Amino acid sequence: MSEEEKLLISTKHYLKAGIHIGTKFRTKYMEKFIYKTRSDGLSVLNLKKIDERLGIASKFLSQYAPEDVFIVCRRENGWKAVKLMGKMTGIRVFAGRYPPGILTNPNLDKYIEAKVILVVDSWPDRNAINDAIKLGIPVIALCDTNNQANNIDLVVPCNNKGKKSLGTVFYLLTREYMRGRGMISETKDIEAEIDDFTEE
């Protein structure tokens, strides 16, 4: 089996989506995922590690029923993607500014219980991470080269700012989660294209 066949999606597609293009800042947490720094100063993430971590995250999430998973996304570029994943899988999503307490305060109207959370960016979504830490539930986070990854149980390195990159990430997470839960067969694709997950 070639390297290419082992990936969740072709290298060409990953590159086209810019999933590997990081920022000019790099934190010590993210150094092990960085492949190189371009001449313009942008860090480039290792594609193989992105793919590997997406696979691990999907497998981990698929151990949980949809109602036990909670996805939080403050970043507007990811709203369409997380909402479509929610619609297709039954996973609960929160797109917008997350007010602290949704996971910890049963008196809130929006209160929900979850056993695992996924955040799109550990900085703007830090309120959700803090709630999860209080509850002791695992946190999966999409992290760019400039993210702090302390308090994260599973880091998925990727460009977590770009529309195409987030569309690709959530297309793959949706497909792999549905396969892992037996919602679709291992060889079947989901009834949505990557573009359906991508903000206009």
Order of helices and strands: HHEEHEHEEHEEH
As a percent range, the share of strand residues is: 5-15%
What CATH calls the topology is Rossmann fold
Gyration radius (Cα, Å) is: 16 Å
Looking at the structure, what is the overall shape?
Answer: globular
- What is the end-to-end distance? 36 Å
Name the CATH homologous superfamily.
Glucose-6-phosphate isomerase like protein, domain 1
Helix-strand makeup class: alpha/beta
> How many individual β-strands?
7
Q: How many helix segments?
A: 6
Residues in helix, %: 25-40%
User: Mind describing the biggest β-sheet?
Assistant: 5 strands, parallel
Number of domains: 1
What can you tell me about this protein's structure?
The relative contact order is 0.20. Helix content is 32%, strand content 14%. The strands form two sheets. Strands 4-3-5-6-7 form a five-stranded parallel β-sheet, sandwiched between helices. The protein has a two-stranded antiparallel ribbon with strand order 1-2. The model has no long low-confidence stretch (mean pLDDT 95). The protein has helices at 3-6, 11-17, 47-61, 79-89, 126-135, 163-180; strands spanning 34-37, 43-45, 69-73, 92-95, 116-119, 139-143, 154-157. It has one domain: 3-Layer(aba) Sandwich (Rossmann fold), CATH 3.40.50. With 200 residues, the chain is an alpha/beta fold. The protein is built from six helices and seven strands. The radius of gyration is 16 Å and the shape is globular. Strand 5, helix 5 (126-135) and strand 6 (139-143) form a beta-alpha-beta unit. Helix 3 packs across helix 6 (163-180) and helix 4 (79-89) runs parallel beside helix 6 (163-180).
